[in-house]
Amino acid sequence: MHPSPTRLVPLALLVGLSSAAAQETARPASPLVTRNQVRLNLAGAEAALAAARAKAAELKVAVNIAVADDGGHLIAFARMDSARPGSAPTAITKATAAATFRQSTGPLPPKGEPDTLLSLGVTLAATASGGKATPLLGGVPITLDGQVIGAVGVGGGTGEQDTAVAKAGVQALLKAIDAEPKPGPAK
């Protein structure tokens, strides 16, 4: 007499569950969420923005300044008086790219001869990404304790001016964070 298919199904499920349970106990438990992660907030973004504006004024250049979080989402933005309105999206793109790619924006380092295909590829990648990548200078990540927590993007000056303004914002923010009292151990 052969066992009926309805009797084999529960047996197969039982065997399958026991092997799955064995795999779960063999695998070390890992946390389901990341706790105590550093996040850039509005106060920090505004501090970086203020320092960047001060540097732009010192350089006598009117620029657009964007501050994004680690996911490239805009937190703060300012367009200085007389700054080109068309550079506003550029500043936001630079902040987004620096935050999400975890590095400063700008052209890829030269390897001797100009690489036409690579240059076209970077431009096409910027277009294909929906404005999330750029070969332009002026986006600088904010790195705290080895973790990128956001970025500052600047548009409206030369690439070098935009970079100097963005770096000033990042450096001022990091200096202010270092000056803050450190919280004590959790109880």
What's the topology here?
Blueprint: H1 5-26, H2 42-58, E1 64-69, E2 74-79, H3 88-101, H4 116-128, E3 139-144, E4 147-155, H5 159-179
Antiparallel strand pairs: 1-2, 1-4, 3-4
Helix pairs in contact: 2-5
Largest sheet, order of strands side by side?
2-1-4-3
The domain count comes to 1
CATH topology: Beta-Lactamase
CATH architecture: 2-Layer Sandwich
Contiguous runs where pLDDT drops below 50 for at least 5 residues: none
Name of the CATH class: Alpha Beta
Please tell me the overall pLDDT.
83
The dominant shape is globular
Give the structural class.
alpha+beta
Estimate what percentage of residues fall within beta strands. Answer: 5-15%
Binned, the helix content reads 40-55%
Distance between the termini: 66 Å
Query: Count the helices. How many?
Result: 5
CATH homologous superfamily title: Haem-degrading domain
Protein architecture, described:
The protein has 187 residues and is of the alpha+beta class. The protein has a single domain, classed as 2-Layer Sandwich (Beta-Lactamase). The protein is built from five helices and four strands. The chain has a four-stranded antiparallel β-sheet with strand order 2-1-4-3. β3 and β4 (147-155) form a beta hairpin. The chain starts with a helix and ends in an 8-residue tail after the last helix.
